[in-house]
Structure formats: structure tokens, C-alpha cells
Design a protein that fits this description.
Elements (H helix, E strand, L loop, with lengths): L3 E5 L3 H11 L5 E5 L2 H10 L4 E5 L7 H10 L5 E6 L4 H9 L4 E4 L4 H28 L4 E2 L2 E2 L3 H13 L6 E4 L6 H11 L7 E5 L5 H9 E2 L11 E2 L1 H4 L4 E5 L6 H13 L1 E2 L8 E2 L3 E6 L3 H6 L5 H7 L2 E4 L10 H12 L8 E2 L1 H9 L5 H15 L4 E2 L28 H24 L4 H8 L3 H10 L14
Parallel strand pairs: 1-2, 1-3, 3-4, 4-5, 8-15, 8-16, 9-12, 12-15, 17-18
Antiparallel strand pairs: 6-7, 10-11, 13-14
The chain binds adenosine-5'-triphosphate (ATP).
The site of adenosine-5'-triphosphate has 18 residues, from strand 7, helix 7, helix 13 and helix 15.
Length: about 475
Amino acid sequence: MKRRILTVDDQKLSCDHLRQILEPEGYEVEAAYDGATALEMLRDKVFHLVVTDLKMPDMSGFELLSTIRDRRVPVGVVVVTAYGDTSEALQTMKAGADDFLRKPCDAEHLRLVVERTLKRRHLFDELAQLRNQLRGTYSFHTMVSQSPKMRRIFDMIQHVGQVDSTVLIQGETGTGKELVAQALHAVNTRRKGKFVALNCAVLNDSLLESELFGHERGAFTGAEKRKIGRFEKADGGTLLLDEIGDISQAMQVKLLRVLQTGTLERVGGVEPIKVDVRIVAASHKRLEDEVKARRFRPDLYYRLKVVSIDMPPLRERKEDIPLLAMHFVEKHASAASPITEIDWAAMQALLNHQWPGNIRELENAVKAAVAMAEGSVLHRDLLPETIAPRVSPAAGGGPNLIDIDERLPHLIEDLVGQVEREYFQRVLSEYHGNVARCARHSGLSRRSVTQKLQKYGLERQSFKKPKFE
Ligand SMILES: Nc1ncnc2c1ncn2[C@@H]1O[C@H](COP(=O)(O)OP(=O)(O)OP(=O)(O)O)[C@@H](O)[C@H]1O
């Protein structure tokens, strides 16, 4: 299908000039000589891109852009600004322009900007469509991820969830260790019992001991009532011991004893109490190193790491950033902050950041941006400066002030490919390889489904229901 471009300028000559450059490139080009006509044309016909002048007598290009975005017309917009007016260019980007061009338009630059904008729009639209189709495909309990490393962890949780082995989850802060622990609880029959968590790093030994094991009335000054500890509260369920690498040697001994015997004594108590608790331990420190440095007991370490899960940091699974960012937009958007999209420049800043605070840092950044946003789009300058350093207009000068990361289209293309492959795999298996039913389900023609299966090397035969005589 030919890509259709609408040029908007009160100067007929300028529209003709754009047409002369763009038509030989294979685009279908139409012109409107004022904003109101442009809006009418956009209502009546599908356009993929609008290239509008900024200065026009009745409705300015700026107003046209804002109306297009307010009405959520799914079209790319490139604004043509006066030469050298940097602040104007920045303003238009803030208002949701995909890109801008300076007058007089250089043919080569125009071709490049148009091609790039159309490509990005196309990928973004595809991504948005897939997101709707696939809500669910990349979720696992309260987590979302499409990175192969995380998908393996999800499989593992499903697998070890059925047994009661102790699990050690290691990984940097904010990588989702607690969510993994909750998922381990949720897939186990113990989900009928409680999931109890305790951060061991914030308490001194005596407080930690009474928090874990409870205490009897009068066990120490201030112990006015009997207290039930976390172990007892988690009886029949799961106990997450977070930041286990930070507990003292003395506490390690006490904990080991409870793990070995399955019984504990409350502080100040004499009666052994039997508990049936599945232990999940988490640590941002690598316990193996702590053992080598003789700060952590090897016997406790081996007892904890019957199953070991290593959480990859976010910088090693950048393909998850668009998915997670959109997940957090959806999670935190509200009637007062009705964000539905993340613009290109903001997404690029998210992809370029190194995320020392991992997913928690990403969630906080998106949450704050959603709360501050006024329109439906999360723009780059809503993100913290540490993630999206401000571009000073004075420092500009090149054709584009915002440096577009050229890897991004590939990254998104890969993502779309992966998402799509998994989608078709799932639908094929649901309909046992029946292409007609897959086509009906996905709203595509049989031919398109067959092409997709070929593209992703999916053999419909292998999804057929086995026949038994
Ligand atoms: N895969 C994921 N999908 C959605 N949200 C996630 C995912 N992973 C983590 N989060 C969110 O990121 C935040 C941090 O996750 P979590 O508390 O589980 O990390 P953690 O590794 O236990 O952190 P810490 O080491 O600081 O205790 C939470 O708000 C959580 O909801």
C-alpha cells in the first residue's frame, strides 16, 4: 500500500515543492492550503504523515498539531519551522511532533526525515496493536517480560513451584526478587497459606530474632505481650527472608537450626514449636562471595540454595524496557493522568539509560512522569534529568536537536517479530494448526496467516491434535 502524505501550507508553491520531491519516492502526496481543510481531509481519508508549515494565517501549524494530537488522529506529524528558530522547533516536539524540518527544505533531508518518521510510526502502530492482541502473553503473575532470560525464570518458577525446596533469589536491587518470591508462593499448593516477607537488613539482632521467632510476655524489658513471629505467621505458607546476606553470624546459626529441625522457640520461651514453612531467601549481595569472605556460613548457604535463581539486571535485558514502560504507564495512568503513549524521544532516553536501580527506578520514573503529564503522551522532558538530560537550545545546531538512536527501530522490529511469533505459536496451538480458525481468531486473512507462519518457520502440522485409533 502506498504511504499517503498530506502537506499543509498556505503557500501553494511550497506544497508543490514538497510534492515534487516526495512523489518520485513512491509516496502519494496531497495538499491542503489551510489547517481547517487539512483536518477535514484527515477525517475523510487515511494519511500516514502530515508535513505542515508552522506559520499560516488562520490556524497555525502548532494549533493543527495540537488538534491532531487531541483528537488522537493516528498520523505522524513533521513541522516545518523558520530557519534558525530553535525554541520553536523544541516547542513543536513537546507538543507531539514526530520531527521538524527547517526552511528552506533541503530535498535530501526531507526524504530522510519523512522515511524515518513513517518507519517509526509504522513500528509504533504495530507495537500498539500487538500490545492489545497480546495482553497476557508476556505476563507471568504480576510480572511482565519478554526477555529470554526472564522467560526461563518464569518456566523455572512454574516448575519448582510445585515442590517445597528452598529457593535463593539473587540479583541487584529492584530487579523483581520479591515478585519472583510471590509468584513461587502463588504457584504452590501453599498459596492457601500466607506469604510473609521480612527485610532482614533493617533490624538489629535482637529485633530480628523476635520478629522471626516471636517472643513470650516478659521475655525482655518492654515485652508486655506475647508476640507471634513471622515463621509462625507463615505456617503452611511461604516466608521470604529478604537481604539474607546481611544477617549476623549469630543469627545465621539460629536460622540454620530452625531450617534443620523445622522447630523454633520464641524468645523467652521453652516450648519447641513446629512450623511448616517454605523458605525463599533473597539477596542483592552474592552469597558465594560472602561465603568466600567468611561472612556467611557455607552450611546455611547450601541449605538455602537448593534452587537458585539469578535475576538479570535491566541493562542486560533492554528489550524489556518498552514493554515494562508501557506496563507502568497502564498501571499508573488514571482519569486525571490519561497517558496512553510514550513518545519516541522519551523511549530513546529510557533505552539509553543504564538503570542502576533497575525496574524499581524505571517504575518510579514512569510513575512520576504520568503524574505530571498534561496530555495523553509521555514526553521526554517529563522524565528525570538523570535519565533524559535536558538539551539546551544553545547547544543545538545540527538538523535534529534530539539525537535519534539508530538502533531503536531494529530493537522494536525485533520485539515486534518476537511478540508476533509467539502470538501465532499460541493461536496455532489453541486451534491445533487449523489456519482458517487461526485467521478468524486473529482477524487476518488465511493468506496473511500462512505468510506469517512461513515467515516465522512455524509448521502447522506440528500443532495438529494427535489421532488415536
Ligand atoms: N518483571 C516485572 N514486571 C513488572 N513489574 C516489576 C517486574 N519486576 C519488578 N517489578 C516492579 O519493580 C519494583 C521492584 O521489584 P521488587 O521489589 O520485587 O525488587 P527486589 O529485587 O525485591 O528489590 P530489593 O532488592 O530492593 O528488595 C516493584 O515495584 C515491582 O512491582
